[in-house]
Amino acid sequence: MSLLHLSFYSSFILSCLGLAFHRTHLISALLCLESMMLSIFIALTILPIEAQTPSTTLTPVFILAFSACEAGTGLAILVASTRTHGSDHLHNLNLLQC
Fold first, then answer.
1. Residue 89: closest CA among 29, 21, 18
2. Which InterPro entries match (predicted)?
3. H-helix or E-strand spanning residue 9
4. Cys-Cys link to 55, which of 6, 9, 48, 74 (CB 3.0-4.6 A)?
5. pTM of the complete model
6. Is the pLDDT of residue 54 over 60?
7. DSSP annotation string for 23-83
8. Residue 26: how many CB atoms within 10 A of its CB?
9. CB 76 within 8 A of CB 13
10. How far is Cα 81 from Cα 40, in angstroms, rounded to an integer?
């Protein structure tokens, strides 16, 4: 396993662990999701260059577009929950209380 693969795998795994264990604030969950998407985007962009294959696919562009949409939606949810609940703590957001 090369150092490049190890860095992509470790960044993705650390982002998953951060999402799993640090669930106190909504903004920290959003940052973990963004770092996951960033590691996937960089992996899909760099790995075809490393393998010396011509990559004309639009997969990294689609991943980047979905990541931007996810970030916008997450920030809209963050603003709406902060306005209604007064904070961005995840324990305040309970779907059974709606």
1. 29
2. NADH_UbQ_OxRdtase_chain4L/K, NUOK/Mnh_C1-like
3. helix 3-21
4. 48
5. 0.80
6. yes
7. -SBHHHHHHHHHHHHHHHHHHHHHHHHHTT------HHHHHHHHHHHHHHHHHHHHHHHHH
8. 20
9. no
10. 28
